[in-house]
Amino acid sequence: MLRGLVATLSLATAALAYDRVCTVVPLGRGQDDGPAINSAFKECSENAAIVLDGYYSVNTLLLNEGLKHVDIILSGTVQYTPDIAYWSPNSLYLSYQNTTTFWFISGDDIHLYGGGTIDGNGQVWYDYFNLTGESGTAGSSTLTFARPVTLTIGNSSNVIVENITQWMAPNWNNLAYQSTNVTYRNLYINSFSYSNAPAKNTDGFNTYRSSYVTITDSIINNDDDCVTLKPNSTNINISNLWCNGSHGISVGSLGQYAGVTDIVANVYVKNITMRYAENGARIKTFGGSPDPNSTSGGGLGYVTNITYEDFYNYDVDEPIVINQCYFTNTTQCEEYPSKMTISDVHYINVTGTSSGAYGDVVVNLVCSEECEDITATGTSLTAPDGQATYICDNVASVGELDFNCTSQSN
Ligand SMILES: *[C@@H]1O[C@H](CO)[C@@H](O)[C@H](O)[C@H]1NC(C)=O
Ligand SMILES: *[C@@H]1O[C@H](CO)[C@@H](O)[C@H](O)[C@H]1NC(C)=O
Ligand SMILES: *[C@@H]1O[C@H](CO)[C@@H](O)[C@H](O)[C@H]1NC(C)=O
Ligand SMILES: *[C@@H]1O[C@H](CO)[C@@H](O)[C@H](O)[C@H]1NC(C)=O
Ligand SMILES: *[C@@H]1O[C@H](CO)[C@@H](O)[C@H](O)[C@H]1NC(C)=O
Ligand SMILES: *[C@@H]1O[C@H](CO)[C@@H](O)[C@H](O)[C@H]1NC(C)=O
Ligand SMILES: *[C@@H]1O[C@H](CO)[C@@H](O)[C@H](O)[C@H]1NC(C)=O
Ligand SMILES: *[C@@H]1O[C@H](CO)[C@@H](O)[C@H](O)[C@H]1NC(C)=O
Ligand SMILES: *[C@@H]1O[C@H](CO)[C@@H](O)[C@H](O)[C@H]1NC(C)=O
Ligand SMILES: *[C@@H]1O[C@H](CO)[C@@H](O)[C@H](O)[C@H]1NC(C)=O
Ligand SMILES: *[C@@H]1O[C@H](CO)[C@@H](O)[C@H](O)[C@H]1NC(C)=O
Ligand SMILES: *[C@@H]1O[C@H](CO)[C@@H](O)[C@H](O)[C@H]1NC(C)=O
């Protein structure tokens, strides 16, 4: 029956490029199109195109693995149902922060494009989360209430995602998970709430255990990190983003799990407009922990070779920040400082204005172990009153900063 819903066409023109083309015909009237989409991906998993040109209501996990040279032409809309009771247990749990996802796409040489929309139907999730506040550490899911990630490119290589709109995600919009060579470009991300419940944790882009990821030419309206590089993200290129209302371009959070090594290295961030945000260029690690089984600090590892260039801030609470006590209270962080080291971080032409949320503070670099080779050139940042205060603690290379530091304790 499901096969009948998937029209397999052998278009004369398409046949030149693909062995098969699967066009998914929507059932309409709110019926679940998930099974038909999944069977299209099974039928058209190699040298094929999958055409999603209608309006699809999805109430089934989309788990599409083993793809090889597949174009996914999304010119229509994939909308997930706001069925919390279904999705919490049935979305796909991943191996980090209890994260789950609605759609896991996996394989080699995949191109997702087409001008269409992925609609997370987030309002119900925002309102429910606002009432219960049920989350794990640092906004992650629990095992009983999961807010799924809208789109995960997982266990994949050589993927391009472009020309897609993402609407009202219940949680992160994008996750590159255990993947290499993934490009996101020309995405329009809009996660906002119609009620007074905030659109929490709606990160634009996340990377985890991934390398050679490019994120470019996109517009992001949201209520958490614009981009965030989670544990083991290397060779990441981020450019030409317009971020509104976010928590910044973040490295981390890292060091969350006791005894686990987290690495973020070789990151270039260039030409970012950051408006009405909590942070601009941010690096965040949890502090240490006395608990050898801690899931809230105590991790190891390092952050190195990170450049932020041409980074324009407008009304940003902390335009430049390194925080090694993320989600860790002061007492514990003093007694058990972060074991993660930070080095080779360069700020080039970071400009604009802070919001004044921290008075005149525009730069806040507080390292637990000494940070090495942190440099800044072309810095031009002011608080609303025209003043600027730059806090640096445990930074070895203060001579390489083009501003005069004061210590946090002064
Ligand atoms: C994952 O969920 C469990 C159970 O709901 C919770 O105890 C745990 O803290 C969560 N993990 C994280 C890292 O938040
Ligand atoms: C991703 O790859 C890991 C490691 O190979 C494997 O354990 C896991 O099942 C894969 N996940 C999915 C959803 O395919
Ligand atoms: C990365 O993936 C894209 C899209 O499949 C491909 O065109 C490109 O050659 C790949 N780059 C490398 C270095 O493999
Ligand atoms: C993506 O959109 C851009 C700008 O509209 C267009 O030039 C490009 O051809 C599109 N890419 C694909 C693969 O459709
Ligand atoms: C969100 O929570 C606040 C504080 O508890 C409450 O006043 C408000 O009514 C809630 N909003 C919604 C849409 O539930
Ligand atoms: C910088 O990024 C903006 C988007 O925020 C884009 O419009 C502009 O063209 C980019 N500039 C360059 C030189 O690429
Ligand atoms: C990160 O990579 C290092 C070095 O390969 C490895 O030891 C560590 O387990 C990885 N951490 C995670 C979270 O995958
Ligand atoms: C530092 O990172 C940049 C950007 O990813 C990369 O091009 C460069 O090779 C890296 N430098 C070193 C010494 O690895
Ligand atoms: C840590 O977890 C291990 C394995 O679950 C357990 O045997 C040990 O008692 C735990 N240690 C502490 C301090 O909770
Ligand atoms: C700080 O956190 C630790 C561990 O979670 C807790 O035991 C302690 O009570 C907290 N201290 C304060 C002042 O909140
Ligand atoms: C920084 O900005 C200045 C003034 O706009 C410009 O002259 C310089 O080339 C820029 N430097 C870099 C490295 O982009
Ligand atoms: C830093 O302070 C020194 C001594 O007060 C002063 O000469 C210098 O101009 C200041 N540098 C900047 C960038 O404000």
TrEMBL record:
Gene3D superfamilies registered for this protein in UniProt: Single-stranded right-handed beta-helix, Pectin lyase-like (2.160.20.10)
Location, primary (coarse class): secreted
Top enzyme class: hydrolase
EC numbers for this chain: 3.2.1.67
InterPro entries: Glyco_hydro_28, PbH1, Pectin_lyas_fold, Pectin_lyase_fold/virulence
Residue numbers annotated as active site: H247
Catalytic reaction list: [(1->4)-alpha-D-galacturonosyl](n) + H2O = alpha-D-galacturonate + [(1->4)-alpha-D-galacturonosyl](n-1)
Annotated signal sequence range: 1-17
Subcellular location: Secreted
GO cellular component, one term: extracellular region
Molecular-function GO terms, alphabetical: galacturan 1,4-alpha-galacturonidase activity; polygalacturonase activity
Keywords: Carbohydrate metabolism, Cell wall biogenesis/degradation, Disulfide bond, Glycoprotein, Glycosidase, Hydrolase, Polysaccharide degradation, Repeat, Secreted, Signal
Alphabetized PANTHER family for the sequence: EXO-POLYGALACTURONASE, PUTATIVE-RELATED, PTHR31736
Similarity comment text for this entry: Belongs to the glycosyl hydrolase 28 family.
Protein name per its UniProtKB record: galacturonan 1,4-alpha-galacturonidase
